[in-house]
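Quick illustration, no need to memorize.
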Amino acid sequence: MKLSEALILPCDFTNTPFVLLFALLLTLPLLILFAPRILPPKRLTISLPDELDDLALFRRALRSTLHPPGSVSRLGSTNAKPKIAFLFLTNTDLHFAPIWQKFFNPANSNHRKLYNIYIHADPDSDVKSPGGVFENRFIPAKKTQRSSPTLISAARRLLATAVVDDPLNAYFALVSQNCIPLHSFRYVYKTLFQPRTELTRFPARLSFIEVLSEEPQMWDRYIARGKNVMLPEIPFDKFRIGSQFYILTRSHSLTVIKDRKLWRKFRLPCLNVDSCYPEEHYFPTLLSMEDPKGVSEYTLTNVNWTGSVDGHPYTYSPAEVSPELIRKLRVSNSSFSYLFGRKFSPDCLPPLMDMAEKVIFRE
């Protein structure tokens, strides 16, 4: 062997071990950079401290029901009329706060003591208070993540906080940061609290929550945690699908807060994330099992699932915002008009504000 060949051979990168080492050194930084985008995200689970913290809140809420209606809330209200608790579940700023401000406090308002506001904002999202009626309405919050039971926990936390806060909260409306009102507050209040008689279709107070049992994706969603995991508490014929957003009565809110049996199933992590939407399953399943005659089986929040992307509903753009759209969104197949609409992009705010008084809040 020539001396020149001997000098070259140790550094010969055609040698397999050197090729592998060199390739590894090149790909390692790329793996670190792109792995979070390639691998499925780790789903949040409910930690024991968080669970115990929530249970303590739920116990306070249940104890508070022993106080008679008419008690003074922490806001100092002594109004004897029932109220609507608006529960905002968000992981971004409340882009539509200005239109909600008009909804809650229009000119010459006489209903300022007929509602309460509670906001659960993901602590990692740095959500800023929009002020006004939303000031000091943020509740102690925990992390949330789509396709995980954390969204159920957040909604239960909102319900329990509203129960504790004011015994006059009679309806509990869960909405998102992308929801807007489709009517005035006066209209919403009259719709929910209109007198019920035996001549009406629904003589008793109802919870307005979507409950579906014949959807083609039912089985995939039912076995998202494993084939037999939901048994025996929740057989397949009792499993339901529904909307994430709803309006519950106080008694149904207490049913949700009291529940432990179904929660033990729905808090389990999903194996198939693509078919896992716990927040759309837990509430309709629980309430349809506990009180099927007390739920409307439809929601009063209009959501357009035509052209949905990655499990998200259709998002309206500014070019689509018009009086005709608002009127269209109000129309439902039930005896009640839709009260809220979802979902709008944040830049829809200017055109919505332009027609708030003359269209949205005009009775």
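Confidence is low (pLDDT under 50) at residues 5-11, 34-40, 197-203.
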